[in-house]
Q: What sequence folds into this?
């Protein structure tokens, strides 16, 4: 039942001790505020890391050759390892390793790209149809390179939307236009863009079919690198384990076929971003744990402050409590009177801190532009539950002085000055 007189007593006590109540509430509100802001930035760091790793397919793997540094099987160090079509074909058809997509780059050298006799400086790369998914690109208009292009050595090209803006801005569409690549005309059949949208270097590429690039620009059967997209497993640890096993198989095969010592780490380079992603995620988890620890310690400090204030309140009202007990007040009435004030101060301050911090994240979060921090935010249910836990802790903090008040001897209380 709502007891207006008790609430009047609470507000009267607060009015008499405005500064003390304000400082107590501030310590509680600041605890919630700090915890929510820290958790928000922890989530922002996780968002930033996810953004960094979504530029290419999350489970992609890149392989490129270097030079040998160790003599092996009568072969001198310093040899340049050269990947070839047969390496990709063997991996696709005979190695038996698990992957979803496989592709390659071939970088033609000493070529010029002209559009209507104007020189344009973009990188021409020969590749296959699977590269679109591995690079996590989407088609703005037209299409990407397909299997027919590869089989027919088609002279077609796919450009980025950045190239479209910079070179073909006066046209409604570049589809059907021709680029002159070292004397050969390549018809533009598609425009692509990056899913991440912030890597301009990857949007300065002109894709052409691998077979055409090798045939037209003296590539023979040479390729510049290999790239794969691996299947995602149920957990991150399983995905990492699968990718490491795949990496070992690829490295062992390439070392064997190219006469590279198993101890030579510079002849075959493999970049496995999922390993790096796991390290970053683990780091983020540790940082979020640290944020929780700091926030919880701050809240505990606020709760201790509430307990101390309630002890002071009990001390100040000892004579009043003795009179109430002399008039027949039950112990649980005294407990309830003290606890209600503790709960009121804790709940009001906690929800004030929650509203202010959530509002700040809502307004400022989407505009935050810091490396590895993107849109810091907090799940409202988590934050709300934290406030409820805080109120519960405030109740427990107030219970000890309340129980002490309820057990004061009447004669001692009446003698209190």
A:
């Amino acid at each position: 039942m709502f007891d207006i007189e008790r609430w009047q007593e609470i507000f009267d006590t607060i009015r008499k001790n405005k500064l003390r109540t304000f400082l107590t509430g501030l310590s509680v509100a600041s605890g919630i505020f700090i915890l929510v802001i820290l958790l928000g930035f922890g989530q922002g760091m996780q968002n930033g890391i996810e953004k960094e790793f979504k530029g290419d397919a999350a489970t992609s793997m890149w392989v490129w050759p270097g030079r040998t540094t160790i003599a092996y099987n009568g072969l001198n160090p310093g040899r340049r390892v050269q990947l070839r079509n047969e390496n990709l074909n063997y991996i696709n058809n005979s190695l038996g390793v698990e992957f979803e997509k496989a592709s390659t780059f071939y970088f033609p050298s000493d070529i010029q790209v002209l559009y209507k006799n104007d020189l344009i400086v973009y990188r021409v790369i020969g590749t296959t149809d699977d590269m679109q998914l591995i690079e996590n690109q989407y088609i703005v208009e037209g299409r990407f390179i397909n299997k027919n292009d590869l089989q027919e050595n088609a002279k077609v090209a796919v450009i980025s939307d950045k190239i479209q803006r910079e070179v073909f801005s006066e046209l409604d569409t570049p589809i059907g236009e021709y680029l002159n690549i070292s004397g050969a005309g390549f018809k533009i059949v598609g425009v692509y863009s990056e899913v991440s949208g912030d890597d301009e270097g990857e949007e300065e590429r002109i894709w052409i079919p691998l077979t055409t690039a090798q045939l037209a620009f003296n590539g023979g059967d040479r390729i510049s690198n290999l790239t794969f997209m691996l299947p995602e497993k149920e957990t991150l640890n399983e995905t990492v384990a699968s990718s490491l096993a795949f990496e070992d198989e690829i490295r062992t095969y390439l070392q064997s076929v190219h006469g590279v010592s198993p101890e030579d780490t510079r002849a075959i380079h493999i970049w496995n971003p999922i390993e790096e992603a796991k390290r970053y995620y683990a780091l983020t988890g540790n940082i979020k744990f640290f944020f929780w620890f700091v926030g919880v310690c701050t809240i505990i400090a606020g709760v201790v402050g509430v307990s101390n204030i309630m002890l002071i309140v009990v001390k100040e009202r000892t004579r009043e409590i003795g009179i109430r007990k002399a008039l027949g007040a039950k112990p649980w009435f005294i407990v309830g009177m003290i606890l209600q004030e503790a709960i009121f101060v804790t709940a009001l301050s906690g929800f004030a801190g929650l509203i202010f911090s959530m509002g700040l994240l809502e307004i400022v979060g989407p505009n935050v532009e810091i490396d590895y921090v993107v849109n810091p935010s907090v799940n409202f249910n988590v934050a709300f539950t934290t406030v409820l836990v805080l109120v519960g802790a405030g109740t427990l903090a107030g219970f000890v002085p309340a129980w002490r008040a309820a057990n004061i001897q009447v004669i001692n209380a009446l003698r209190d000055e």
Residues 107-218 form one domain. The two ends are 34 Å apart (CA to CA).
